[in-house]
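Form 12-C: Joint structure prediction
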Amino acid sequence: MSAPPEQVTITIDDRSVSVPKGTGLVESALQAGIEIPVFCYEPRLGPPLGACRMCLVEIEGLPKLQAACTLSAQDGMVVRTSATSAQAADGQEGVLEFILLNHPLDCPDCDKGGECPLQDLTLRYGPGTSRMVVQKRTFDKPIPISPLIALDRERCILCYRCTRFSEQVAEDGQLVALNRGASSIIATFEDEPYRAHFSGNVIDLCPVGALTSTVYRFRARPWEIQNVPTVCAMCPVGCNVWATTREGKVARVLARNHPEVDGGWLCDKGRFAHDHLRAADRLTEPIRRIRMRGLVAVPWEEALDAADEGLRAAGASVCVAFSGGETVEQADALSRLVRQGLGADVALLPDDPDPALDAFRAPLAAIRSANVCLVVGDEPVLERAPIVDLWLRAARRGGAEVVTVGPAGAIAAPPGSAAAICAALAASSPPEELRELARDLREADRVALVWSGDDDTGGRHLAGLAAALELGEGSGAYFLPRTPNGRGVAQAWRAAGDGRGIDPSGDEALGALIVSGDEALRDTRVVALADRARFVLTTAMFMNEAAGQSHVILPGTGYLERDGTVVNLEGRSQRLRRTVEPPGWDELAFFAQLARRFGVDVDPWTRAGVDELAALPARSGTAPVVAAPAARGPQRAAGAGGDFELVRYRALFSGAAVERVPQLAFQRPAAEVELPGGDASRLHIATGERVVLRSGEVSRELAARVNRRLAPGVARVAEEHADGLADSVRIEKA
Amino acid sequence: MQNPFEGAKGFAVTLGQIFRKPITQQYPEYKRPVYPRFRGRHRLHRHENGLEKCVGCSLCAAACPSDCIRVVAAENSPGNRVSPGERYARIYEINLSRCIFCGYCELACPFDAITLGNEFELSEYSRDDLIYTKDMLLRPPTKTMPVADRDLYDTPDPVWKRES
Amino acid sequence: MTRAAPPRRLAELGLSSERVLMKDKEPGSFEREVAELEERLLPTTLEKAVSWAQTKSMWPDTFGLACCAIEMMSIVSARYDIARFGMEAFRASPRQADLLIVSGRVSHKMAAPLRQIYDQMLEPKWVIAMGACASSGGMFNNYAVLQGVDRIVPVDIHVPGCPPRPEALMEGIVRLHEKVRAGVPPAYEFRRVAT
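Section 2 - Result
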């Protein structure tokens, strides 16, 4: 880093304040305790635009009013805001009058009414009455620019916050301003829906009610709601959110800025998937399998007795399958029940991040200031931990070198080779194609390593690479778990005993299987285990075929109904707060009672003690074991004929929660297969054409999409469309 | 010792009252007209075209000091147009057993959709029956009250309307 | 002493509260509540005589709690003169009272004496919850105030208002008389309260 920037002293409203040179006037005024009102200004959206002119101030020496957001502090500057300058006050009043010329006065109708910056600022700075006598401009309204967002062009004040987000932050470029001058309007291209992972953020950004959420539409007004500060547990990022409740139901989820974790952004899954809590098919009562009667709803106490009986009969032959969405407290209760109460020591962990990674913790915001970012693994970062993708984009805009190594990366690598690449980069003499990258990584000041692979040993390899690169402060290694709290669950399981989280293979009968959560039910390994188990205890929010095999099914809770701790991909413990009441007991209460029957004392309450904006724990842990260089995966033949290696990825918009929110249906992955450009042209397949994927007896017909970044011989399909296909498929035109 | 004539004075007053007309109101048979501004049972109003004036903005609920109004809004659709704007009140309930008849809801309403009438005969046999739903508030009251002459007791231009 | 077929709606029995009079609407909560008592609703001649006597000398208990009590007191005064209903004798002893007018907000501390007074009254006894606070807690939705006296005593009539004007309270009394005359038993016979 360079020397600390020079301090300059400016005078704002007769108050003198000293700020680093280059600080914007709006922030400088805030430091002096003076508010300069803004609409369009938002530092997170990149350079200021000065579109709304709300921030007009008088600056001594300049003949006209200036937009404060576009100016930075200069030494000796004398600024007068509307508080002390009649000229500035008059200017701001005029600006507001102009903004309100065409803004409809339908505040009682408008969802923003009550939490609207335009309302607030008009009350404080605007004219008391309107001189507008002619008809206001009208448009059709509301226009659904996607199933999630409704656009009301009458209310739009053209601050360009939404388009700047779309162009400069999410970089999807789908929201644009059409036409010029007075007839400018916000629109999507060709009236296509705004289909992007982060589209919901424009609702937060809009300073008026022009962009509103269709899910929240007319559900509540700001004075009827309670906002609960909690954490999103839909993916391993752990974005901080406000959960808005009305009458005991979650009405919406808003971003709550944690500058180190999410920077105030939130993906659409976190924002809109909350409605699954109210799905009609949600389980609300415990269910027990009774001989000759099938599955019967029973009281909680009876379910507890049945679970007790089933586990006692199983003895120590018990396996627990975690789904990775549990809180640390739930995982701890379950782990201690199994390890200390039952004496069993077998678990299926969804993720197993290596503890050595704790030595390379860094806040996610550190990615933005990294010089070199390396992404390894088969899964798209956007699908696994979407906010990390935003940080990588911010790093790239800041001039960092962002290199992806994988089947769809800048450096092509065969699927499943992420661990080998880490090992190769850590080695003293990396192979030819990685040599330049290895040099850059070693020479860079600040490095961000992101693992998005599918290999359970990945954490160790990533830590090995981090150790070899001697990552210091400002650099970090980020292992992206598959599941929201995979890191916390693995920690809890390890802490509850001395054994290992092992994968129970073999085919001897199992005494009992505890399936914790819906995600675990989707795991084919768990389904196979359930066939071998004499007693299956399941907690699930939704009934499905796999859950139907269980002997006792407990209604599960969603993350908004839990109190507890979750550990995100950085290793940061964050507090989940109960936002709404679950339909019955929560899992923690049940397993704490069950554990007590087996002589293990588990606290059924969450031990508080995590701050609302949790800090990242200091780096800890021993120097990691440098992984033995794993052999590089066999370089498979590149698509001879029509043979492709199939890469599946778990799409962000998939899973039990997303499936139950009809508004999110358009975000779910399309039934298509991505094919590399070279292979597609050789097979004469164009985007949109139907192709058939065959492996053995299984065949699936999907639409083709040509992706020129994909490595030759690799085809990529979302997991939900690759059902039953083997790793190697034959693709031909339908 | 008090002056004995003091007591006689008192009886004289009593005696005088005998020849006055009794002031007792025969309530259930005779109902004294209430003042025009008397605030009684609420009413919701419709536009002349039959659409409801209420758009479900919940401002009345915000203004209500005893929190007795519950509004749940929904969106008008071409097949189900209830109010002129985009939204309408799908549920509009006033819990009259909590209501203190302060009239703030009337003041808060931007569309003059809710007003307080003059009817006070609202006793109910059950607490739940005092929760007035939207259809009950939209209908005219069954028992009407006589109202005193507006010209005598009501100023034509209320202060709060003049100054807004 | 045969009874006629019970009426389908209470309004036909002479009950005339606002909700009961909305005959085009489905039966309200009270009508559904007393539907099971239907065979008792049409009183026999003897019962009619008894209930007539009850309505003509229903002595209230002096139980003034707050601002509503001022209005309650005024119904005894010359202008409203509740003696016309045979109710002028406000009794300070619950044993001599038939009607408990809970006039005002009941704090949790006052709840026990209220219940004790109610228990000391002799049957048949009736309760009027006068005003918003007694009916539901009113605007005092807080830790100190009982959210409606119907949680501790069975209430026959709820009179809304803050406070109800004397005529409104008298209307409540008239409604109670209608109820007694129609043969609807006092609320404690069919309504459960928390004990």
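Section 3 - Comments
The mean pLDDT of chain B is 88. The helical segments of chain B are 4-18, 59-63, 104-108, 134-138, 150-153, 159-162.
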